[in-house]
Amino acid sequence: MSAPLPPPPQGAGAPSQEESAATAMFYRMSAERLRARCLLSGLALALSALVPYEVAFGHGIFVWSVLPELAPAAQIAALAPALAGLWLLLLGARTGRRAGLFIERPTSRAVAVLAAFVAVNVAVWVGRRSSAWDMLPLPDSLFTRPAPLLAVFALTAAGVVLRFHARARRGGSALLVASVAAALVFYLWPSRGEIPAQTIARAAVLVATLPDARFQLGYGMVLLFALGPLAIALLGLDHARRVPRREHPGLAIAAVWAMPALMLLFVYRAFLAGGWGVEAATVAFFALLLAAVVAVLASAIEVLALGVLVPDAELAPGAPDGAGASGARPIVAA
C-alpha cells in the first residue's frame, strides 16, 4: 500500500494560522479606526455650517446668509456637508450593547460612509445646475468639485496600508492605480475653459520669471499646493509593487496630513498680513476639515476592501464555517 501524500504547504493555498490571526486583528483595528474617524469627521462637517465659506474685506460670509436667495435644490446643496456630518456622527455612535446605533457591521458602515459622500457630490452637482438659472448661484469657493482631489488622497492612504498585508496586496495595488487615475481626472478636467494642468504650467513660468522674491514665494506656495495630489499619487504608484515595512506607512500618514499641513502655510501668510482674524481661522478650519474627510474616506475604503477580498473565516479565526466575522461582508441579510 502506498504511503499517504503529505499535506500541501500552508503558503501554497490556505494562509497560515498566524497570518489569519494578524489579518483578523488588523481588520478589527481598521473597523474601530473607521468608527472613531466617523465621529471626528462628522463633527468637523457638522461644524462647517458655522464657518464662513468666504471672507470679503475681513468679514465672513456664512451659508445661512445666502440661503433665502437660493433655489430649494441649491439650499440642500449648501447644507449637504453639514447633513453628511450629522449622518457620520450617527454612524460612529454606539451603545454599551451594540457596536452602532443603526449599523453594526464594519463593512456596512464603510458602504454608508462612501454613499454619504456620493450623495453630497450629487446634491452639489444638482444644486449648482439649479442655482445657475437663478439670480444668485452657489459660490465657487464653497464647492469646486472636490471628489477627484479627495479620491487621490483617500485611495493612496488605503492602498498603501493594504499593501502591508499579504491577503490584500492585490487590492491595495488596484487602489494605488485608481489614485493615479483620479489624479489625471483632477488635472485634466476643464474648469472655466482651462484644464488645471495649464494653470499649473503658467504658475511655474511665473515663479521662474517674476523679479520679486516675495511674489515668487507666493506663487511657489500655490504651485506646491497644486502639485500635491500628483506627488502623492506618484509616490503611491511607486508602492504598488513594494511591501511597506510598517503596518501604517509614512505615505499613508502623508496622504492624510500633507495637504492640510501645506494649507497652514496660507494660515501663516494670513496671520502675517493682518493678524489672527476670520480669514486665518477659516483656512485653519478647512485644513482640519480636509484631513478629517480624507481620513474617514481612507478608512472606509480600507475596511470595505478587506471585507471583500478576505474570506469571512480569516477575519474571525476560530469561527465556524459560514459564520465569519460579524460584518465581514457588506449589506447582507442578518
From TrEMBL:
Top-level taxon in the UniProt lineage: Bacteria
Keywords assigned: Membrane, Transmembrane, Transmembrane helix
Chain segments annotated as transmembrane: 38-64, 70-90, 110-127, 147-164, 171-189, 217-237, 249-271, 283-310
Protein name: Uncharacterized protein
Protein species of origin: Sorangium cellulosum (Polyangium cellulosum)
